[in-house]
Write a structure and sequence with these properties.
- By secondary structure, the chain is α/β, with parallel strands linked by helices.
- Helices cover 46% and strands 13% of the residues.
- The chain is built from 8 helices and 5 strands.
- A 3-stranded parallel β-sheet has the order 2-1-3. Strands 4-5 form a two-stranded parallel sheet.
- α2 links the parallel β1 and β2.
- α1 crosses α8.
- The model has no long low-confidence stretch (mean pLDDT 92).
């Protein structure tokens, strides 16, 4: 997960994609964010995947089928180059608001054109808001950017999951199954792209 702005759901997406991929093969979640958000999440409870920071990752990465990296917001140029070279797929989450979309466009301009990346619309407000659909139309149809078709909707279940230190499907929230279904769809898309 990489982005030029905080608050776009990088950590939630990294945690839940790692949980999904761990069901398909052993997965490592690398907490590369100086805030250590993914580590804090895991310390409050238990995640089904293994977790380490970026200093440990190089020595243990070969043991894992899948590796998800939660990066810091607005990475330095050298960090960005390293990530591009190391990643099979870069996921760029964004919320559908104007400031996040502005930051996303800066991110897209900063990465080389041959980079394998896809944009994820995240924290989509509920209907009747059309914010997610409008952002998808702008990014995919007008800007011709590579997009995941799955959009991650905004649910309070994610806050409950984070507070409990568990994946959303163990949060106990009434919307937990619906929230997890979004990540199951996204995970299937990720695996399809990686084939």
């Amino acid at each position: 997960m990489i982005g030029f702005k905080g608050g776009i759901g990088k950590t939630s997406t990294a945690v839940h994609l790692a949980c999904y991929l761990n069901q398909k093969g052993e997965t490592l979640l690398v907490d590369g964010d100086p805030n250590r958000s993914a580590s804090s999440w895991a310390e409050r409870g238990k995640l089904p995947c293994n977790l380490c920071d970026e200093t440990e990752a190089a020595s243990i990465a070969s043991k894992y089928k899948h590796i998800i990296i939660d990066t810091k917001a607005r990475p330095e140029v050298e960090d960005l180059e390293g990530l591009i070279n190391a990643c099979d797929l870069m996921i760029l989450p964004t919320t559908p608001d104007a400031l996040a979309l502005d930051a996303l466009m800066l991110m897209v301009k900063a990465i080389p054109p041959n980079t394998n990346y896809k944009i994820l619309l995240n924290i989509i407000p509920p209907k009747p808001s059309r914010a997610g659909d409008e952002a998808m139309e702008f990014l995919k149809d007008q800007m011709k950017l590579p997009m995941f078709s799955t959009m991650i909707r905004r649910y309070s279940a994610y806050q409950r999951a984070s507070l409990r230190g568990v994946p959303v499907y163990e949060s106990g929230d009434a919307k937990a199954k619906i929230a997890w279904a979004d990540y199951q769809k996204l995970g299937a898309e990720v695996l399809k792209v990686m084939k």
